[in-house]
Amino acid sequence: MVVKAKYLDGFLAIWWILFSWKWLRSGFAFGRFRPGEWAAITFIVLVWLSAILSEDFVSALYGNLFRAEGLLAIIAYVSLFFFASRYVPVHRYTAVMWAMSASSAIVSIYGVLQHFHLDSILRPLVAASGTRSFGFFNNPNFFGSYLVLFLAIAATLYLTSSNKIKILICLVVISIQFMALIYTETRSAWLGAIAMGGFLTMYIVLKQFYSWKCKAGGRWRRPCGG
Questions:
Q1: CA–CA separation, 55 vs 127, rounded Å?
Q2: What is the Cα–Cα distance from 164 to 67, expressed in whole angstroms?
Q3: First to last CA, the chain
Q4: Is residue 77 within 8 Å of 5, Cβ to Cβ?
Q5: How far apart are CA 104 and CA 144, in angstroms?
Q6: How far apart are CA 98 and CA 166, in angstroms?
């Protein structure tokens, strides 16, 4: 995990350098912060306060030696959100979601193979985890959290697609993700998937329940007459 964290930090350092150079050349023009960005800034400030007030600042900054889940990791994740929010146009969100689902399907297939000890890339770590799948995350719990998030993305694409081929692709991806989720043997991730499914169901029923009878613009995309 530490090696992956270093790659992530290096990648984001390059992005921040490019962003700063562009910002300087534009005469410090930045634009207004969006609600999501304000929420991210507030979160970073709270985590930073928690870090400087902790008894072990080094651990709060870097995290566990083998997990690297400290303040720097959180800043990296928020940076990814910031760059996506700023530089991915709204009309490209669906394309990004399809790309994320495709990459998730590949990771999920590898996780399923891990359960049956048919993988080869991380073979030395498989024996330590038994039959629990962990993908490329070295930890079944992290892999389970990842799958819950990407199950939500694939489910959203399924609900908003009208093309039969895309619907079939979504079903295949969701099936593979769900299979990998089961093989993580992570109860918290299973509960997260149930909560995610309950949220999506509640959203459909409460906000768009009568759109089930019309298919204009996509399945369940908008209420009838909307």
A1: 36
A2: 41
A3: 47
A4: no
A5: 12
A6: 10
Digit-coded pLDDT (tens) for 181-211: 999 999 999 999 999 989 888 877 776 655 5
- The tokens for 218 are 């996509």
CA–CA dist 24, 68 (Å, integer): 32
CB 40 within 8 A of CB 82: yes
pTM to 2 decimal places: 0.72
Residue scoring higher pLDDT (49 or 118): 49
Query: Domain segments of the chain: what residues?
Result: 2-87, 91-213
| Percent of residues, the chain, with pLDDT higher than 90 | 28
Residues 204 and 159 sit within 8 Å (Cβ to Cβ): yes
For 142, other C-beta atoms within 10 Å of its C-beta total 19
**Torsion angles phi and psi, residue 201, rounded to 5:** -65, -45
For 98, the token pair is: 């399809």
Q: Element (H or E) spanning 40, and its range?
A: helix 35-52
Rounded CA separation 147/173 (Å): 11
213/203 Cα distance (integer angstroms): 16
Q: In this predicted model, which residue has the larger pLDDT, 211 or 180? A: 180
Tokens standing for residue 100: 């994320």
